[in-house]
Specification:
The protein is α+β, with helices and mostly antiparallel strands. Helix content is about 25%, strand content about 25%. The chain is built from seven helices and eleven strands. A nine-stranded mixed beta sheet has the order 6-11-3-4-5-10-9-8-7. A two-stranded antiparallel sheet has the order 1-2. β1 and β2 form a beta hairpin. The chain is elongated and about 120 Å long. The N and C termini lie far apart (about 150 Å).
Length: about 300
């Protein structure tokens, strides 16, 4: 019984050795012997190592050198444009007269010239012409040649009398004298004689509009006042009436827009305020006037 166990164990051990050696590529041979301790046959296992490979290693294929990378420069955002040569000078520095005034008025229509137009060519005119020429791919000279003048006329209309006289649309004109107190600083100059309000800055007239005043039982006060406060969408609680763009100068009296004045004209009257009928005009004036600006109400 003990010999049987020994034989099984030997066979199992041999099987294990065979499995392990075959997996590694070794050679295996068996030899049988009857000289075991109990007279049973014992198999001897002879393990031979594998022969080293005598075949030559293949010559490696050379790796080709990388091709140089081609870099393409990006195109410019704009294609080059050839600017024509400038033509003979028609208007420029040193010129005076109505042609300069017309030119400035046209430039002002296109928002290249700002402020009042006049008969004298100034630095702002030169700068405006240069900007206009540069934007339109015209030779940037700062003076007017025929190409510049033609392009400007294509883009503008003939200036109106108001534009040439620096009057805004709807403005009135009056030759009534300005009160001396209106000639300095910033002032709403209100003349009861001409029924006008004139916005004057440092003695320079900016705008003129028609106004009406209070009735005999509620007259508009006269004298020198200052804007105390402003209310863009004011409503009078005393009279339950709308007073847009109100600029208060004396108690409850204010300069403001009046829809009644716009509808009825001088057939009506205010309760003491200075009524303006030009809605766009009073809206513009409201944005110009600051708290503390003068209000001069007088008879010219």
């Amino acid at each position: 019984m003990g010999a049987g166990v020994t034989r099984v164990a030997s066979v199992a051990m041999i099987s294990g050795v065979l499995a392990g050696t075959c997996a590694l590529g070794y050679g295996v041979s068996r030899a049988t012997s009857d000289s075991g301790p109990t007279g049973t046959a014992v198999q001897a296992v002879v393990i031979t190592s594998p022969e080293p490979s005598t075949s030559a290693s293949p010559t490696p294929t050379p790796t080709p050198a990388p091709r140089p990378r081609q870099v393409t420069a990006p195109l410019p955002s704009q294609r080059p444009v050839q600017v024509p040569e400038p033509g003979p000078r028609l208007l420029g520095v040193g010129d005076h007269g109505p042609k300069v005034r017309d030119l400035q008025a046209r430039l002002r229509q296109l928002a290249w010239y700002f402020g009042d137009v006049g008969d004298t060519w100034d630095k702002q005119t030169t700068a405006a012409i240069k900007g206009f020429q540069d934007k339109r791919r015209i030779a940037e000279t700062g003076y007017v040649d025929q190409r510049t003048l033609d392009r400007l006329h294509e883009m503008t209309r003939t200036p109106t009398r108001d534009e040439l006289a620096n009057r805004l649309p709807g403005d009135l004109h009056t030759d009534a004298r300005l009160d001396p107190r209106c000639l300095t600083g910033r002032a709403m100059c209100i003349d009861k004689q001409s029924s006008t309000i004139r916005w004057v800055v440092d003695g320079k007239l900016r705008r003129t509009m028609a106004v009406r005043f209070g009735a005999s039982y509620s007259p508009t006060r006269e004298g020198l006042f200052h804007v105390g406060w402003k209310s863009r969408d004011h409503v009078s609680h005393l009279y339950d009436s709308s007073m847009p763009f109100a600029m208060f100068f004396s108690g409850g009296q204010a300069v403001h827009y009046s829809s009644d004045f716009a509808a009825r004209g001088y057939l009506g009257a205010s309760h003491g305020c200075v009524n303006v009928r030009d809605y766009a005009g009073i809206q513009w004036l409201f944005d110009q006037v600051d708290i503390g600006d003068k209000v001069v109400i007088y008879w010219s």
